[in-house]
Amino acid sequence: MVGRFIALGHGEIDSLILQALVHKLVAKNILSSDDVRALLFEAATHLDLVGSEQTPQAAQIIVEEDLVPVFLGG
Prior knowledge:
The chain has helices spanning about 15-25, 35-45, 55-70. By secondary structure, the chain is mainly α. The protein starts with 12 loop residues before the first helix and ends with a helix.
């Protein structure tokens, strides 16, 4: 079974694992909240929600309103 990905929970397990990993890295002071925000911003700029990558302003709104609460808490 090496090399195969099994989607559990309708594909939600990967996001839960990612959230837990980020929480753990922040708790151990391996990543700062600024590091997490920078990573989220980089990812958000490459989202294709409207047929192209996001503008920096739109990506920042996505990060602060949608992603930061999930990864760093409200």
